[in-house]
Specification:
about 150 residues; mainly alpha; two-stranded antiparallel ribbon
């Protein structure tokens, strides 16, 4: 796959449900879909490096479709084949063109990281709490452990 085709895929995967990158702060669904998609790409890349089987990755958000000739155009619900997902993952790291899908993915990770820090600070401050007011105290205490912050 050529760099031009990957650039066009970068345009194609841009979410159309939001008009501005800042809307990812309030649109939790698309932000989580972008992050999950990225981690599936990473999983395929890691499996490919180890010689394991790779799987197609499904697109779960509404995307732009430029309908350009000689370009792969995807729609919501389509799957990107495994070999293409590996190239797309490498493209995300090697590109300096932080526009379209790449820009949305970077912003989704930035916002997700902020939310994780906020939850860490919240639970760290709540280490001493009345266990009578919490229905499942053990589960709540488990969530406060630094080791598990962000894993649920």
């Amino acid at each position: 796959m050529t760099t031009k085709q990957l650039d066009n895929l970068n345009k194609n995967l841009t979410p159309i449900d939001i008009t501005n990158v800042k809307e990812l702060e309030t649109n939790h669904t698309i932000r989580n879909q972008l992050i999950r998609f990225f981690y599936k790409l990473k999983h395929n890349y890691d499996n490919h490096q180890r010689g394991l089987q790779i799987c197609p990755v499904r697109i779960t958000w509404n995307i732009t479709n430029p309908n350009e000739p000689n370009v792969l155009n995807f729609s919501k619900g389509d799957s990107i084949r495994g070999s293409l997902s590996i190239l797309l993952y490498r493209y995300l790291y090697l590109t300096t063109n932080q526009t379209n899908y790449v820009k949305y993915t970077i912003e989704a990770f930035r916002i997700d990281n902020l939310f994780k820090k906020q939850s860490y600070r919240y639970f760290k401050a709540k280490k001493c709490c009345d266990n009578q007011k919490i229905s499942n105290y053990n589960e709540y205490y488990f969530m406060q452990d630094i080791k598990y912050i962000g894993n649920r």
